[in-house]
Amino acid sequence: MQKRYYEDLKVGMKGSSKSMRVTRKELLEYANKYDPQYFHADEVGAKDSIFEDVIAPGTYTATLWRLLDHQINGDIFFVCGFGWDEVRWPLPLRPDDEIYATSEILELRDSSKPWRGHALFHYQVLNQDDQVVLTFRSHNLVEKRKVD
User: Fold this and answer.
1) In angstroms, rounded to a whole number, what is the distance separating the alpha carbons of residues 130 and 99?
2) Which of 16, 17, 114, 119 is deepest in the core (most CB within 10 A)?
3) Are 95 and 27 in contact (CB under 8 A)?
4) What pLDDT is recorded for position 148?
5) pTM of this prediction?
6) Are 121 and 137 in contact (CB under 8 A)?
7) Which CATH class is domain 6-143?
């Protein structure tokens, strides 16, 4: 796979991942370990919640986004991400949802260091009904090509 540098990116570039199924087992394992609120980790208790079943913790949804985004942007020479803005979970992620991720480059600009640039991305995770379950803007530093 050819790697992409800052110079290869263009404002408006879009991408979409393949879909993946959210399994109840993995959702519950994550929730019980990292966010054991009853509506995430207790199948019996969650039935009496406003959600009527367990739902994924937001951090689990973000973890799945990270995995899916590697399909879209795993070929970019990212230095690092350094911030997220406008993070929202408009709908809960549920067991057996079929999700995919999208990305769009909103802005590119030089960084304070000549060997890197700043790329602002808009990311979303959508379910099988094309409903957004996670949306945010991500600030990233991307390596520039080395010039001798």
Assistant:
1) 9
2) 119
3) yes
4) 56
5) 0.94
6) yes
7) alpha beta
